[in-house]
Design goal:
alpha/beta; three-stranded antiparallel beta sheet; about 260 residues; 8 helices
Length: about 260
Amino acid sequence: MEIIIQPDAEAASRLAARFIAKLIREKSRAVLGFATGQTPLPLYRELCRLHREEKLDFDRVTSFNLDEYVGLNPAHPASFRTYMWTHLFGQINIVPEHVHIPDGLAPNIPISCEKYEDEIQAAGGIDLQILGIGTDGHIGFNEPTSSLVSRTRIKTLTARTRRDNAGAFGGEDKVPPHVITMGLATIMECRTCLLLAFGAPKAAAVALAVEGPVTATVPASILQFHRRTIVLIDEEASSKLLRGEYYRYVYEHKPDWQKI
Ligand code: GLP
C-alpha cells in the first residue's frame, strides 16, 4: 500500500483528480470505478472543474459504481444514481450508455449481479477504482464479515452504516436494509485502487485497514493484498496510524516519476 498524507481533504482531492485526469488522457478508453458518500465530493467538484476549464474529456470513459440501495427508485434523492448525476455525470461529457450503476430495482437480483460482473469484464476490467471507507471498515457496502472473495451481490447493512447514512434519508428507519455492492474480489481485480478518507471519524478504520491484520471483520484490510492500492488521506484521518512519519518520509523522498 502507498499511504499519502495531505494537509486537508481539498489538497488530497486535487491530487486524486490530477491522477485520474492523467489516466483519462493517457488511456483512450479508461474504465473508472466510482464511489459515493461525502468523501469523494471535493474530488468530483475538481473533476467537473477540469472538464469545464481544462477540457478534460470523458467521452470515451466507461464507469462502474460500487453500489446502490435495493428497492429505491433511481430518481429518489438519496439513490446513488441521483448522487452521481448530480455531483459528476450531469456536469461532464460522459456518454450515458457508458455509465453502469447496480440496479436496485432488478426483478432478479442474483442475475442482475452476474450481469454487472460480466459488464465489467466486457469493458476490459476497471483501471482505477475510487473507494471511501465506512467507520466500520467497509468498502463499497461490504460490511464486516463479508467474504474476502465475494462478488457483486446483495448485502444487509449494519445498524452503524444505516446510522452513518441516515442523513440522506431523513432518519435511520428510512434507510433501506439491503444494498447491491461489488464484492471484495471484484474490487481486488481493479488495476489500481484509490482509497480516500478524510476527518477524525475515519482514523480508527484507516489504522485498522492499513496496519491491522487482514480480516473479514475489517473488509478494507483485504487491500493489503492488492498490488496497487493508494491510500490518500488527510491529517485527521491519519492520526491513529503508528507509522505516519514513515509514510510521510517515503512520499517526500519518492522520485518525481513515481509520484502520483
Ligand atoms: C457508504 C458507501 C461507501 C462509502 C462509505 C463512506 O456506505 N457505500 O462507498 O465509502 O459509505 O461514506 P462517507 O464518504 O460519506 O463517509
